[in-house]
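User: Last request for today: this protein with zinc ion, please.
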Amino acid sequence: MTTEHVATMSEPMAQAYMEGRKTMTRRLMKIQPPSPDCKITTMIDTTAREERKYRDWNQWSIIDGLNITKQSGYFRCPYGQPGGYLRLLSTWAVDKEYDSFKPLGLPRSVLMWNHFMEFPKPKGFGKNRPGRFMPTWMRPQMPRTRITGIGVERVQEITDEDIISEGLNRQTIEDLVAPYAGRFKIKPEHWIHSEKGNSEEQYSYCKKCAEKEIRRLSKKYPEDKFELDGGWNTEGDGRPYCETCHAPLANSYTNYACEMECEHFEECPIDFKNPDSAEAWYSVLASEGWDGDDDIHKKIRRISFQGLWDYIHGPGAWEKNEWVWKIEVERNKV
Ligand SMILES: [Zn+2]
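Assistant: Here's the final one, the structure of the complex with zinc ion:
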């Protein structure tokens, strides 16, 4: 029996698959072309006995006439071939009484939880275990899908349609950036209203600083009357900050602000783990949304995929623009 081909998915991607939204996954190729001019060749069929074992093997090379001037080693797609099956794995856990057990030592009767399930890890379940360490006998409990296509391309070649087939949606990205954006406690925006039209009105404050400023101004200009204003969500071309303590203040972005943010992140790749970027991206999604066929939404989806790619593979991964296996699978029927 040949070994089963497996692909491990993160929690949001496992859920996207189960909901029938994910039909595609991209995986970095271990062997990258030795030089940028290399092309990939695949042994489709061979009759020579010695060569038959190289069927479905690939190689990066430059062929100049009959000469191979540059070549990589031979390699196969570690996820199998179209028509074959892919077993989907994820982080998993069993009852915490087995936390000291190695995977192979677990009793066969043990109940297992994983990210493809519709409910969060039940109470009493123990440590998270990596998908690739799931024992073979446990794997039939995991979803299995048919591979409908395998291709190779550079990660930046991804199209808008493929980003959607990868299972990304607004919720996925919001869940991803929220913990980083959340480090900033966003406070409502306030202003100081003056009866005489004092120039103080142009500044934004958090509530505490606004109240403090009112006390100061009232002493300085006793003939004027200052009042606290605001506290609701406004639309702006960027994030307002408290004039005194510089805390970020809540607002929603105008279309112009969203376009500016997109332009910025197309120039310098977004880092979801950076609180400023996470905050900005959260605001863009909240203000502009995700769905739509226009340029701004295509940009939002592409920047989101780029952010996810760097989130998984580390900062700079998108910029490297390496070659990936593009694996298409059958849609999960829900
Ligand atoms: Zn303040």
